[in-house]
Amino acid sequence: MMAEPLLEVKSIDVYYGEFQALFGVSLRVYKGEIVALLGGNGAGKTTTLLTISGLLKPRNGSIIWQGRDITGLPAFKRVEEGISHVPEGRGIFPRLTVYENLRVAASTRRAKEHFQDSLEQVYTIFPILKARRSQLAGTLSGGEQQMLAIARALIQRPILLMMDEPSLGLAPKLARDVIYLASRLREELGVTILLVEQNVGLSLKVADRGYVMETGRIVLEGASDELALDPRIKAAYLGL
Ligand code: ATP
C-alpha cells in the first residue's frame, strides 16, 4: 500500500444540531482503490459522505485530501479538487433534458474546458444516455436516472467518485449492474471509488476493502474477502 492516502478521514464527530450522528469516524482511501462503506439504515454512511463533500462540517476531526487539510474548504472547491459525489436519491433535474443535466454538472473551470471530451466518454460508457440526450430526465427509468446521476459526477472529472447507494430502488439485475459499474469506471477512467451500499454481498465483490458502520461508528474494517468471511458480517448482512 502507498504511504500517503488519497483521502483520509480523521476521527470526525458530526452533529445535526445537538444530535450526534458520527463518533470519531476514521477511514482511508488510497488511489486506485474501490472502498465500500457498509452498514444498515441510519448507521451514518450518508453523513460521512456529506462531510467528505463539505456539505456538513465536523465538530471535531479533519478531512485530509492528498496530504492537505481541507476541513475548512467549501464544497464547490472540493469538486474542483477532484472529489465528486453521486448523492443518494440521485439529485438530477427532472425537468431538464439528459444533455442539459450533464451541461449544468460541468460547473468547474476544468469540467467546462473538458466538457466535450467528458461528454464523449460518458456517452461511450452509457450509450443509452446518448440515445436519450434530448429527453427530459424525469421521464427516464430508475436505472437510467441512476446512470445519469453517475454521469453528472463523471462530467466533473473526479479523482475520487463517491457513490451513495447507487442500487437503491433498482430491480436486482440493475442493482447488480450499477454496483459492478464501479469496477468498470476504475478500469476505464482510472477513478478511485468510495461506495456506500446496503447491498453488502455485492459491494464486497467489487471493493478491495471495506468499512462497516453501526450507529455512527466504524465497527469493522478490512480487505473485502476477509470481511465477506467474517462471521459478524455473515450474520448481520449476508443472511448466513
Ligand atoms: P441510510 O442508508 O438510511 O441513508 P446512513 O447510514 O446513510 O443510512 P445517515 O443518513 O448518515 O445514515 O444518518 C445517520 C444518523 O443521522 C441517523 O440517525 C439519521 O436519523 C440522522 N440524520 C440524518 N440526516 C439528518 C438530518 N438532516 N437531521 C437530523 N438527523 C439526521
TrEMBL record:
Gene3D superfamilies: P-loop containing nucleotide triphosphate hydrolases. It comes from Aeropyrum pernix (strain ATCC 700893 / DSM 11879 / JCM 9820 / NBRC 100138 / K1). The gene is livF. Residues 7-240 form the ABC transporter domain. One of its GO terms (biological process) is L-amino acid transport. One of its GO terms (molecular function) is ATP binding. PROSITE patterns: ABC_TRANSPORTER_1, ABC_TRANSPORTER_2. SUPFAM superfamilies: P-loop containing nucleoside triphosphate hydrolases. Belongs to the ABC transporter superfamily. SMART domains: AAA (SM00382). This is Branched-chain amino acid ABC transporter, ATP binding protein. Keywords: Amino-acid transport, ATP-binding, Nucleotide-binding, Transport.
